[in-house]
Amino acid sequence: MCLNKLEKNINYKFNNINLLKEAITHSSYQKNNYKIKKKNYERLEFLGDRVLGLVLSEYLIKTFPKEKEGILDNYFQKFANQENLYNYAKKINLHVFLKTQKGDNLENNKSILGDVVEAIIGAIYLDSGLKSCAKFIKKKIIDKELIYSKPLKHPKSILQEYSLNTYQTLPKYSILNKYGNEHKPIYEVSVSINNDNVVSAKGTNLKNAEEAAASKLLSILKI
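and the corresponding C-alpha cells:
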C-alpha cells in the first residue's frame, strides 16, 4: 500500500516515513511474519495519547480562560475519546492502510483505529516536534464549530441537578470493572438514582466512563 495517499489524507508529509509505517503496523502483522522484524503501533500510541492530552489541555485553557475544570474536562473528553478518534479514522479511511495479519478486517474496530490515530500523532511528534503535532491536532481532531459554540454543560452536573430537584438525593456511581492495557485501562461504571434505571457505560478513564453513564441515563430519562 502506497503511503503517499495516507499522507495526503492526513495532510502531513513525513520526513521519516518509517515512523508512519510503524504507526500503522498492528502486532498481529509481526507475529505472523517471523522474518519481518517490525515495530508495531503500541509504543507510538502510548506517546501520542500523552501528546494529544497536553495539546488539548493547553488549547482548552487558552480558549476558555474563565471556565471551570468541569467544562474543560467535558470538552477534553469529547475530543480525546475513542469515538472522536474513530470518526477521524473513518474520515481518512485509515483501515485501508493498516498492516495486520491476513484476513483481519478492522474497519469497524473503534478501539484499534482510535489507538492508531494516537500512534500517528506520536509519529508526527517524533518526526517534526510539538509545534507541527499541535497544528495537526487543532486542524484534524478538534471540532472548531463545537469549540466556539456555547460551552457545554457537563452531563454529570445536569444529572445531579435533576436528581437533587426531583428526589433530593445524589446519583450513585459504582465501578463495575477495569480492564485493558496497564497504561490505558478501560473503566466500566454504573449510575442510578434511588436504585432505579441503573445503566452502565465504559470510558478510557473514570471521569470519561462516569460522563458516558450520566449521558446514557439522561437519554433514558429524556432530559
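(Above: one complete record from the training split.) Residues 151 and 166 are 25 Å apart (CA to CA).
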